[in-house]
Amino acid sequence: MTDRAFLRVLAVDDEPPALDELAYLLRADPRVARLHTAADATEALRVLRDADVDVVFLDIRMPGLDGMELARVLRRFARPPAIVFVTAYDDGAVDAFDLGVTDYVRKPVQAERLAESIRRVVSGRVVPTHPAALARAEEDPTIPVELAGTTRMLPRSAVRWVEAQGDYARLHTADGSHLVRVPLATLADRWADAGFVRIHRSYLVQLRLIAELRLANSGYVVIVDGAELPVSRRHTRELKDKLVRAAKQDWNR
Question: DSSP characters for 160-203?
């Protein structure tokens, strides 16, 4: 794919200075062929009714229908556009993850960061759209995390275990960890179907990655990637049952 202009873009923000700055940066990118702007969700829906759009750069906090609600509407389109959230806040990370957004850009927007976001949109447009590929994407959604000042979309499958830190959660992967503004209880509820189990009020682990469950001096612990994590008394019986069921399923395959 060359850098010639081909993307049809809609930018939505209720603050005129922010919208003007975003529009200026988008117009400067050679991959943007056509740019529409809207000051709220209602105007955005009118644009989308009359024009084909490949990607929507969308503010989250807006009066009336906010960015999250508009994104949910867009997801129901027969051919939904890619969505990039552009926001000054990080408390929408878990909802962005659930919606499968392409990127999550923090304000004030930098030209280099916006160029990277457009690159992700372009890459997404050339991903095979075979039903099996789409199903895999639905099965392994991403969550935005900060890495050296850049927002990265982390696949859920990369998360080994999660540790509660107040109203935040630390996602542990094979090569590091990431702090996200999502309560552990929220992840425990939303990731249960993906094999994550609560072992303690402060810990959530991927069941299939538990290498060992053993009795220690202070009670039971599990070993995940060499880390020893405590299992609370109230979760011990349920965890044992799940490990037994998982083992039986493996034997019956």
Answer: EEEEEETTEEEEEETTEEEEES--HHHHHHHSGGGTEEEEETTE
